Automatic annotation (TrEMBL):
One Pfam family here: Methyltransf_11
Keyword terms of this UniProt record: Methyltransferase, Transferase
Known EC number: 2.1.1.-
Record organism: Streptomyces ochraceiscleroticus
UniProt xrefs under PANTHER family: METHYLTRANSFERASE LIKE 7A, METHYLTRANSFERASE LIKE 7B
InterPro entries to which the protein is assigned, alphabetical: Methyltransf_11, SAM-dependent_MTases_sf, Thiol_S-MT
Name of the molecule in the record: Class I SAM-dependent methyltransferase
Molecular function as annotated in GO: methyltransferase activity
Enzyme class: transferase
Gene Ontology BP term (one): methylation
Domain Methyltransferase type: 38-132
Length: 207
């Protein structure tokens, strides 16, 4: 970890992930949550204002100390108890069957082993628990021109944005990790270049 990764990149991500078009998407993905929640890739807390009243607590997984610090204002304004519970989504410090639901927003692109992280999320969900997700990744089938650009840009994007990949197949990763997708919307994010804004939003249930 260098100065760029530790002190600069979290500030860039804070701005990029807080842009106006992301807010209705965050509200939509958070709306069904209730009970005790695990959030992987908490970042700087942009989901905090959108936790519904039915959420009783949030265990946040966030590796960046500065990211957690930048979340301070949002955390202090929140009525939902949120605590930083771990640093690595690939190795969660919880017993099996701990959480009612989980939340992941624009996170699976960056975790080094996204499938391992998803298996961990599945492990700590209670029977019947769900993962609400909002992720960007590989463009839909049929958009081969966008996919070609994603493959070209992926190495540069990963270097500039802390390992963020443009080409991960979100639905396939969820299925491989033992989830069944029960709701799925795919779309291009408003205001974002298509190679960087191919989004998937939905619900996945552990099999």
């Amino acid at each position: 970890m260098g100065i760029y990764s530790e002190r600069v990149l979290p500030r860039i991500i804070d701005v990029a992930c807080g842009m106006k078009p992301t807010k209705p998407l965050r509200r939509q993905v958070c709306a069904p949550l209730k009970g005790d929640i695990l959030e992987i890739g908490f970042g700087t807390g942009h989901n905090v204002p959108f936790y519904p009243p039915a959420v009783t607590s949030v265990a946040a997984i966030e590796p960046s100390d500065l990211g957690w610090e930048l979340a301070g204002t949002r955390l202090r304004a929140s009525r939902t108890p949120v605590h930083r519970a771990g640093l690595d989504g690939q190795s969660l410090p919880f017993e099996d069957n701990t959480f009612d639901a989980a939340l992941s927003t624009w996170t699976l692109c960056t975790i080094p082993d996204a499938e391992a992280a998803l298996r961990e999320v599945r492990r700590v969900l209670k029977p019947g628990g769900t993962l609400r997700f909002l992720e960007h990744g590989l463009a839909p089938e049929g958009d081969e021109s966008v996919r070609r650009w994603q493959r070209r840009l992926d190495p540069v994007n990963a270097r500039l944005f802390g390992g963020c990949h443009l080409t991960r197949p979100v639905a396939d990763l969820l299925a491989s990790a033992g989830f069944t997708i029960t709701e799925l919307e795919t779309f291009y994010e408003q205001g974002a270049p298509k190679p960087m804004g191919a989004d998937s939003l939905g619900t996945a249930m552990a099999r």
